[in-house]
Amino acid sequence: MRIGEFRNDRARTRFLTAYEQTLAELWPGPRTALDLPTTFGTTRVYRTGPQGGEPIVLLPGSGGNALMWHRYIDTLARHRPVIAVDTVGEPGASVQTGPIRDGQDGATWLDEVLAALEVTDAQLVGCSYGGWLAVNHQIHRPGRAASLVLVDPAGFADFGPRFYAWLIAGGLAAAAPRPLRPRLARLVGNSAILEHELMGLMRASMGFRRALPVPPVLSDEELRRLRVPSLFLLGARSAMHDSRKVADRLGRLVPSARVEIVPGAGHALPTDKPELVAERILRAVEQ
Hints:
Helices cover 39% and strands 19% of the residues. The chain has helices at residues 9-26, 73-77, 103-116, 129-140, 161-174, 181-188, 196-204, 220-223, 243-253, 269-272, 274-286; strands at residues 5-6, 32-38, 41-48, 56-59, 82-85, 95-96, 122-127, 145-151, 208-209, 230-235, 257-262.
């Protein structure tokens, strides 16, 4: 099977130059970068915040890296240690060397990352694809996560025409002249395109060939295996799934789950409602 990699050295250099510049712009505070060996490649993580306490581990969505959480780092790090992850197989500073074929492989990779960090009580926070990874970790490799916060996670519906149309519209809006983007963001329901630095980094990542699995819909049996406290934050206008149906299903299958459908938000929930999401993360990890 293929692995995620850059098309050539030129594409790699172009991206990594943009990555380091964006990192310096968006995360100017203290941080420790660690490159952790795993079965699937070297994984870059950034640590910040206090030394003691249960860490908040941040997992980005598809096509993203640790920098997608840049607006959250200072707020969360005032309360807990924070570990922001560049998912292996995504455009970032991690380097994939082995294929991730399914959710079980994704769970094994994440467990190896947490083991290398000597973390046994992580507060896992995952957005979209990162949420799917966090759920799979709890299903297949439980024991290192104390709780989950899942921000409009993947794995609850097949990707249909509505979602792909949302992605395409967002991509076109992101390429529009900067003064037009606020209006277009409202029109297409994607506030992420207003993250100008990250949009520049996304353009620099066009030379990266992603080879991670498309998340299949989680089965009832899999969801029943979620035993740790779990908060699901769902965008009321999510293009990925019907949030009300997801909430009803979780209510039937996962007694440990709390579900909040956020009005006025879509799949870009972390940028639609950053203050609300940050507050809910902190509330969840303090319980």
